[in-house]
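PROTEIN DESIGN WORKSHEET
SECTION A - STRUCTURE
LENGTH: 433
TOKENS:
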């Protein structure tokens, strides 16, 4: 019976989420920005149409629907959330099956836990090409996965409660796997790889597995934007791209083996140059790149034909620019052009509430940094130069080094608030931290 009680606890955690209940904020940014699928001018810069910020809870999808016009298409939903209700994330994923959204995590933004599942459901419907993944993260964003927290109150569970929880759990897990793993992209690859599911389930709830390397982003089909400065066409760069591709298409991390040494053959064609890289003559693993003559750098859209030998994985695949970088390259170290970075607002309004009265209300600047021990740290800089420092971890919240907990905002205020348990003062910020 003890094992079943543990299972019930896990189910409760999955359905309830592992972070304090505080509804997310849905913000309409610019519904007239260029749409996904609009190829009338490929030079148009993609922008966020709507942003979801804060903790997910039941009802947030309905708020999103209310913010949308009836005939919308091709919108990009930008995400900045520490997670929340896993059940609500599933509602978002179901809705995305009917009305596709692109998903984007911007510079110094985060998308963790339940939010990361919504991110992985991002897609675009392209005319004559069908639906394929459209999920972007900035190289300095934080995309994190972990298993559900175990948050269960004291009490006894009878057989009926256990049986009901078991049925609900099977249905919930079945929906998650069915919606995120059943689809395949334009190249026939799974949207949600088994290796990512294994990573999610094997990461403890008090930890977070962040997507930090070229290997993981490429393996799990996550587009990094802005991407790295384009790599020049060379034998060395194509060898790296081939090695990465041969592993990624069979859902294998490149880091599990040494970088392959290739036998390279290059020949001129009618339209450019053909490169054939043979990785292993024993089982015929190889890559073929047929590049246009005008192509001097390995940018978006380069395709590779692979033959995986005993491992399988043969086919034609599109490679992103990061595929030509070594697999262990840290995303945060990528050299990008500053002007390519999408503009996301970093301004905020900060409030202090004492004894139920708002005593301070001023514009403030929101800065985000990472601390190996303290988790994610938000510095809110006041006009005077003073700072309010908020540290956020899955199971702990601090304000200026003191324990804190989430509380409701004052009536009429659209803000996220927390009370400093040492001073009993309430700090609020809009948009949320």
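SECTION B - SEQUENCE
RESIDUE ASSIGNMENT:
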């Amino acid at each position: 019976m003890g094992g079943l009680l543990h299972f019930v606890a896990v189910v409760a955690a999955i359905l309830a989420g592992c972070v304090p209940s505080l509804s997310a904020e849905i913000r309409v940014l610019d519904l007239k920005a260029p749409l996904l699928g609009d190829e009338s001018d490929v030079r148009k810069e993609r922008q966020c149409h709507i942003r979801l910020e804060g903790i997910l809870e039941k009802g947030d999808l309905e708020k999103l629907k209310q913010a949308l016009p009836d005939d919308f298409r091709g919108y990009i939903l930008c995400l900045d959330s520490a997670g929340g209700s896993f059940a609500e994330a599933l509602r978002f994923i179901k809705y995305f099956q009917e009305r596709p959204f692109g998903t984007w995590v911007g510079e110094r933004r985060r998308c963790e836990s339940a939010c990361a599942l919504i991110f992985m459901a991002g897609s675009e419907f392209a005319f004559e090409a069908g639906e394929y993944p459209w999920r972007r993260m900035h190289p300095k964003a934080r995309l994190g996965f972990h298993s559900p927290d175990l948050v269960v109150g004291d009490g006894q569970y009878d057989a009926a409660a256990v049986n009901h929880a078991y049925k609900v759990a099977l249905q919930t897990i079945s929906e998650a796997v069915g919606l995120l793993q059943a689809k395949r992209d334009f190249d026939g690859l799974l949207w949600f790889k088994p290796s990512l599911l294994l990573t999610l389930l094997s990461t403890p709830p008090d930890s977070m597995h962040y997507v930090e390397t070229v290997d993981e982003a490429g393996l799990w089909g996550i587009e990094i934007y802005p991407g790295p400065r384009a790599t020049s066409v060379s034998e060395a760069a194509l060898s790296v791209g081939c090695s990465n591709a041969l592993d990624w298409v069979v859902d294998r991390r490149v880091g599990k083996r040494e970088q392959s040494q290739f036998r390279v053959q290059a020949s001129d064609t009618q339209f450019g140059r053909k490169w054939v890289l043979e990785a292993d003559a024993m089982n015929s693993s190889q890559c073929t790149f047929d590049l246009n003559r005008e192509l001097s750098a390995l940018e978006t859209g380069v395709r590779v034909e692979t033959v995986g030998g005993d491992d399988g994985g043969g086919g034609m695949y599109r490679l992103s620019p990061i595929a030509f970088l070594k697999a262990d390259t840290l995303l945060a170290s990528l050299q990008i052009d500053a002007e390519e970075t999408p503009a996301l607002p970093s301004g905020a309004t900060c409030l202090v509430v004492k004894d139920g009265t708002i005593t301070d209300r001023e514009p403030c600047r929101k800065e985000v940094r990472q601390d190996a021990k303290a988790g994610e740290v938000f510095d809110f800089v006041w006009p005077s130069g003073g700072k309010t420092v908020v540290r956020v971890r899955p199971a702990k919240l601090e304000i200026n080094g003191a324990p804190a907990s989430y509380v409701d905002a004052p009536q009429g205020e659209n803000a996220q608030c927390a009370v400093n348990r040492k001073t009993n003062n309430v700090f609020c910020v809009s948009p949320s931290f």
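SECTION C - NOTES
The radius of gyration is 24 Å.
The chain has three domains: 2-211, 231-340, 347-430.
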